[in-house]
Amino acid sequence: MTSDAEPIVVLGGGLAGLTAAFDLHRAGRDVEVHEASDRFGGKIASSPVGDRLVDAGADAFLARVPQGKALCEQLGLTDQLTSPVAPVPAYLHRAGKLRPLPEATMLGVPTDLDALAASGTVSTEAVARAGLDLTLPATSTEGDISVGAYFRQRLGDEITERLLDPMIGGINASDIDRLSLQSASPQLAAAAGRHRSIIEGVRELRASLGAALGSGNSAPVFHGLTGGTASIIDALVDHLPTDRLHLTSPSLLPGTGPTVVATPAPAAAELLATVAPRTSALLAQIEYASVAQVTVELPTSAVDPVLDASGILFPRVDGMIITACTWFSTKWQHYARPDSVLLRMTSGRFGDRRALELDDETLTATLLGELQTVIDIADQPFAVRVHRWFDALPQYVPGHAQRVADIFTTLAEEAPHITLAGAAYRGIGIPATIQSGHDAAEVVLANG
Ligand SMILES: Cc1cc2nc3c(=O)[nH]c(=O)nc-3n(C[C@H](O)[C@H](O)[C@H](O)COP(=O)(O)OP(=O)(O)OC[C@H]3O[C@@H](n4cnc5c(N)ncnc54)[C@H](O)[C@@H]3O)c2cc1C
Predict the structure, then answer these.
(1) pLDDT reading at 254 higher than 80
(2) Is 430 domain-assigned?
(3) Does the C-beta of 58 come closer than 6 Å to ligand 1?
(4) Boundaries of domain holding 121
(5) 258 and 379: one domain?
(6) Structural domains counted in the chain
(7) In ligand 1, which atom is closest to the CA atom of 11?
(8) Which residues of 19-35 are buried (b: 16+ CB within 10 A; e: fewer)?
């Protein structure tokens, strides 16, 4: 079934826009994609490090949320699906030492205080303070609350800053004291709503999700692709008609036909300024964090220890520029080589632009220098890639869900032929972004 009507226009050729276009094309609709830059994929990209292509953005997606795996299956990428193989999920930096992230945690929330004490990730006073969570009166999450405000009350400052911040704050490149509990971690918010004690709430959650959660055990927590997450983008592009895909084709003002705006929120605000000014003003309020990453390949013989984990997290409270180091060659079997290790160091958080202000050489030296507080590195890397992601990650501040509801309601009033998709709204991860593309396509199809 092919419609004679004018093509459906998708503005933005990242994961959300291409997923919406894919669904619409499969439904027999004529759809064209306009992407401002010279490549598709947006925040998903691979580029060379030495003689290999390595993910420059997302390298994994949550396995328990079905949309990522389901899209890979639809696109014929099942053979490429893989999962991290590291024996230890991650280490945390504390006082110049590496401490294993306790097994019994979820997004940094400990569920076994003895195991937490044994891990050495926090002081004994912090463990004792966390124990108060079991007896303290309930903390209200009414009307949304920041991750920081909630966990400081339940578990104390130290655990909030040393466990919650590197996990939830790190994933979102956020300041946890202005990160919405409800929007950034709906599962923790639901557990907080159901239970007086968050430790008990997360124990129940872990039990219901299965023992694998956050522990690297039997069922995989994450999936990746042996060809990198950019394989999803390549496959989506391959499934769409070439003559309907337009690169370097920015700032088309939406016409009167059905349109999916799948750009980041600031670009959406600009695109909608005339046609939907109230929506545009709400979109402009969504702020973004920028990040910079340095990926290096080093001789194995020059690195001690060669990590047995997916990576290292560096709590913001330590004041370092590095926020995380993903140990690609241990995390992913397909990057393992006997003679070299492959590491990706990340920097940049909302409110911390120090990394962005350094030139490539200084940034590389600074991040390697900080990594050397916990890993001996006796030689120079033989391959280096610096990647800067400006305005990379939308910041879900308290009240974000209400703002998003207002955006969608206002847009339906101002310009019902336009719908929105993308990471700015109901989840920044790959599965949620895919779902936003599916949702946008469904709205367009429902409108005829
Ligand atoms: C460094 C980094 C690491 C990440 N790691 C992970 C991870 O491991 N796991 C995970 O699940 N998620 C991860 N994410 C999040 C996830 O990758 C993104 O949230 C998601 O890919 C965003 O997709 P999108 O389509 O919403 O937006 P984008 O990827 O930003 O795509 C929007 C597109 O719109 C285009 N555009 C802008 N303006 C216009 C215009 N006027 N006209 C036309 N086109 C325009 C842009 O060029 C871009 O291509 C990571 C993100 C970053 C930045």
Answers:
(1) no
(2) yes
(3) yes
(4) 101-209
(5) no
(6) 3
(7) 43
(8) bbbbbbbeeebebbbbb
Centre of ligand 1 from the C-alpha of residue 441, in Å: 18
Residue nearest (by alpha carbon) to ligand 1 atom 26: 422
Asked whether residue 280 falls in the same domain as residue 414, the answer is: yes
Residue 198: φ, ψ to 5°: -75, -30
Q: Which of 150, 388, 416, 128 is nearest to 272 (CA)?
A: 416
- Residues 201, 113 share a domain: yes
pLDDT tens readout for residues 297-337? 999 999 999 999 999 999 999 999 999 999 999 999 999 99
- CB count within 10 Å of CB 218 equals 8
Cα(393) to centroid(ligand 1), Å: 8
- 372 and 301 belong to one structural domain: yes
Query: What distance in angstroms lies between residue 396's CA and the mean position of ligand 1's atoms?
Result: 15
Ligand 1 atom with least separation from CA of 39: 49
Q: Are residues 176 and 136 in the same domain?
A: yes
Q: What Cα–Cα distance (Å) separates residue 402 from each residue in 169, 190, 386, 405? A: 21, 16, 37, 5
Ligand 1 atom with minimal separation from the 389 CA:
53
Q: Does residue 217 lie in a domain region?
A: no
Residues constituting the chain:
448
CATH code of the domain covering residue 377: 3.90.660.20
Separation of 105 CA from ligand 1 center, angstroms? Answer: 28
Percent above pLDDT 90 for the chain: 88
Same domain, 423 and 386: no
- 346 phi-psi bin (left φ>0, alpha ψ -120 to 50, beta other): beta
Q: What is the CATH number of the domain that holds 256?
A: 3.50.50.60
Q: Which of 263, 391, 395, 426 should be mutated for ligand 1, with most atoms under 8 A from CB?
A: 263
Does 90 map to a domain? no
What letter represents residue 162's amino acid? R
Q: Packing angle between helix 198-209 and helix 147-155, nearest 10 degrees?
A: 110
Atom of ligand 1 nearest to the CA of 250: 42
| Nearest-atom index, ligand 1, CA of 18 | 25
Cα-to-centroid distance, 217 and ligand 1 (Å): 30
147 and 166 fall within a common domain: yes
Task: Judge if the beta carbon of residue 342 lies within 6 A of ligand 1.
Answer: no
pLDDT tens for 283-300 read 999 999 999 999 999 999
Chain segment 394-436, per-residue pLDDT in tens: 999 999 999 999 999 999 999 999 999 999 999 999 999 999 9
pLDDT 10s digits, 72-120: 999 999 999 999 987 778 999 999 999 999 888 899 999 999 999 999 9
Both 390 and 402 in one domain: the answer is no
Taking the model in full, what pTM does it have? Answer: 0.95
